[in-house]
């Protein structure tokens, strides 16, 4: 397969204050920004031929970049036969058209690149619908002249997903397609809601894995549940949420869900389109924020994930920082980070190190979430026993001649139902706590 030759462009607007951009506690260095966009480009299936970094006071309204630097880009494109220019910043539809006419080659921004990667990674019906919706919302204001340009430029990054024919139809048909996609995604979200309500009725504790892309969430899901979710060492290797049973307690269910990875400047079109998938995060009782501790930029990655979680309104939930890939650090580096992040858990999902500590932390949070009681249920009380196993977490069970004694974690709303079965025997209560 022939890979496109790409020029990456980074512009630092030193004196330009963008009121729409939130101030960040951490700031990526230019090298970190270059490395991330380079990895995104490679993940999309292209080769980075040249990288250009530039400082200017403010964006050029017509070309985004200054006219002098634009001439330099034109020379690089012509001399090195560059097929695609990617800007790390978001450019307007007008600027994109002007740049393509001036450079006589395809021009995209970071948002279009990420959308293209999502188009490649989407495999489920819902994932494909969500990505197409995000792409059409992004392409709609760029529709004028786009079809002619793409016919001239051919395939490659930025042309996947909805396809060239979709870009050649008029705005009315694009909006009609968007409306249809929204209805289909809504229908799938209704089915998801039904499944979630059944889990909530059973009072099953739900955990969501969140984190920066390629932090090891899917590997952790596999390590904790002995499952075989797809794993690959690349950005956005999985898009579809996966839910598995986690055996924290021997006789009760805890569910853990892997979710789509986040990234800095995650396109708002994707957040809107993946709303139903992100419901797994919103409905969870606990968030495990998985961090690639071997990444030198991990603090900024944590901040970027926090911003997305705040945007979807879930940052108030219990969150445990789970630092992954500790096998890539020296003992000195690891000990230093353990001192700095005292309340966090340190693991290697790949090597299955640190998992007992993670389970212990989850148990403590579950115990705070539920009330712990001990009940004595006669064997002829089949309905109440069925109710307990459907709605409570059974931590331990002891069978007697005519009844069973159970140590339960139970939602407070069910305590009135079980109050007359509360066990007050002579044996110490501690004997039944697993």
Explain what this protein looks like in three dimensions.
The protein is an alpha/beta fold and 434 residues long. The chain folds into 3 domains: 5-122, GTPase HflX, N-terminal domain (Rossmann fold), CATH 3.40.50.11060; 204-367, P-loop containing nucleotide triphosphate hydrolases (Rossmann fold, 3-Layer(aba) Sandwich); 370-432. It is 43% helix and 19% strand. It has 16 helices and 13 strands. The protein has helices at 30-44, 67-79, 93-103, 110-121, 125-139, 146-153, 164-168, 171-201, 217-225, 268-273, 275-282, 298-311, 331-340, 355-369, 382-391, 415-418; strands at 5-13, 47-56, 84-87, 106-109, 205-211, 242-246, 254-258, 286-292, 319-324, 345-346, 371-378, 393-399, 403-410. Strand 8, helix 12 (298-311) and strand 9 (319-324) form a beta-alpha-beta unit. Helix 1 packs parallel to helix 4, helix 4 runs antiparallel to helix 5 and helix 5 (125-139) packs antiparallel against helix 8 (171-201). Residues 17-26 and 145-153 have low confidence and may be disordered.
List keywords for this structure.
434 residues, Rossmann fold, alpha/beta, 19% strand, 3 domains
Output the strand order for the largest sheet. Answer: 6-7-5-8-9-10
Enumerate the spans where pLDDT stays under 50 for 5 or more consecutive residues: 17-26, 145-153
Task: State the CATH topology of the largest domain.
Answer: Rossmann fold
* C-alpha termini separation: 57 Å
Structural class: alpha/beta
Under the CATH scheme, which class of the largest domain?
Answer: Alpha Beta
Number-wise, the strands total 13
CATH level-two architecture of the largest domain: 3-Layer(aba) Sandwich
């Amino acid at each position: 397969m022939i890979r496109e030759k790409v020029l990456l462009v980074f512009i630092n607007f030193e004196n330009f204050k963008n009121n729409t951009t939130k101030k960040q506690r951490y700031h990526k260095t230019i090298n970190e920004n270059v490395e991330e966009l380079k990895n995104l480009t490679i993940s999309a299936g292209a080769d980075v031929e040249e990288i250009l970094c530039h400082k200017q006071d403010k964006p050029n309204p017509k070309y985004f970049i200054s006219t002098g630097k634009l001439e330099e880009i034109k020379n690089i494109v012509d001399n090195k036969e560059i097929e695609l220019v990617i800007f790390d910043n978001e450019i307007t539809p007008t600027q994109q058209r002007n740049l393509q006419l001036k450079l006589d080659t395809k021009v995209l921004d970071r948002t279009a690149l990420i959308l293209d990667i999502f188009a490649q990674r989407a495999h489920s019906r819902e994932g494909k619908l969500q990505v197409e919706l995000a792409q059409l919302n992004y392409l709609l204001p760029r529709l004028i002249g786009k079809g002619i340009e793409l016919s001239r430029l051919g395939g490659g990054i930025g042309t996947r997903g909805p396809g060239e024919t979709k870009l050649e139809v008029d705005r009315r048909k694009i909006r009609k397609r968007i409306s249809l996609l929204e209805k289909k995604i809504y229908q799938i979200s209704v089915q998801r809601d039904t499944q979630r309500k059944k889990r909530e009725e059973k009072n099953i504790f739900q955990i969501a894995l969140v984190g920066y892309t390629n932090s090891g969430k899917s590997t952790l899901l596999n390590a904790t549940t002995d499952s075989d979710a797809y794993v690959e060492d690349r950005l956005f290797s999985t898009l579809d949420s996966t839910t598995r049973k986690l055996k924290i307690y021997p006789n009760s269910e805890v569910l853990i869900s892997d979710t789509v990875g986040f990234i800095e400047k995650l396109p708002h079109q994707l957040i809107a389109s993946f709303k139903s998938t992100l419901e797994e995060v919103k409905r969870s009782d606990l968030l495990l924020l998985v961090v690639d501790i071997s990444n030198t930029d991990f603090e900024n990655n944590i901040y970027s994930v926090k911003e997305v979680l705040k945007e979807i309104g879930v940052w108030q939930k219990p969150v445990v920082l789970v630092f992954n890939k500790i096998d890539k650090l020296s003992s000195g580096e690891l000990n230093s980070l353990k001192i700095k992040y005292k309340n966090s858990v340190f693991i290697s999902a790949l090597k299955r190190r640190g998992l007992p500590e993670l389970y212990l932390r989850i148990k403590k949070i579950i115990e705070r979430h539920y009330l712990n009681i001990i009940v004595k249920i006669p064997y002829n009380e089949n309905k109440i026993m069925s109710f307990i196993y459907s709605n409570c977490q059974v931590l331990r069970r002891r069978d007697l001649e005519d009844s069973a004694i159970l140590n339960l974690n139970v939602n407070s709303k069910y305590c009135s139902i079980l109050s007359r079965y509360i066990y007050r025997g002579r044996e110490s209560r501690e004997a039944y706590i697993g």
